[in-house]
Amino acid sequence: MIDQFGRLDVLVNNAGLMLLGPIVGADVEEWERMLSINVQGLLYTTNAALPHLLKAAEDDPRQVADIVNISSIAGRVAWANYGVYNLTKFGVNGFTESLRQEVTKRRVRVGVLEPGGVATELGTHNSGAMREHIDAFVESTEILEAQDIADGIAFMVTRPRRASIAELWVMPTDQA
């Protein structure tokens, strides 16, 4: 990407996996998959992008760069049967805040976007009672569309250089 376009101005960490179920008797391989994608993927991608973002923040035309980490309202509120997913999203929020404090004075803005229910494949990775729970929520709620999240990201990264959006909730009106 850098070779093709010459610079990196924005990183959006959006990969995620949500495998729900009770902690007691859980399949720990599912935990490892969620930790690998939701936490380690974000860490490794951020680590690789940071030198390029710091350089872009020093240069014209923007003189600012952005990292937007996609978390979840599950990073703010814990629910039964969401334990490890909650863990990963609370971790994303904590990492985002720490990184924000480290690099914002160097003009790399770091923010977290925490969506509520969105029409994605995220819930389809579940089965049984958890899938029924997710399907019931989707049927009873006018959930967000991907464009709603894209609009939130665009809002965060297009503020003037002097303004940094550290946290943005985007919720379905029915869920708020």
From TrEMBL:
Query: Would the keyword Metal-binding be found if you checked this record's keyword annotation?
Result: no
Q: Does the keyword Ribosomal protein apply?
A: no
Which UniProt keywords are present, listed alphabetically?
Oxidoreductase
Q: Name a GO molecular-function annotation.
A: oxidoreductase activity
Q: Which InterPro entries match?
A: NAD(P)-bd_dom_sf, SDR_fam
Q: Which family does it belong to?
A: Belongs to the short-chain dehydrogenases/reductases (SDR) family.
PANTHER family, per the entry: ALCOHOL DEHYDROGENASE (PTHR42901:SF1)
**UniProt name for this protein:** Short subunit dehydrogenase
Species of origin: Promicromonospora soli
Species classification:
Bacteria, Bacillati, Actinomycetota, Actinomycetes, Micrococcales
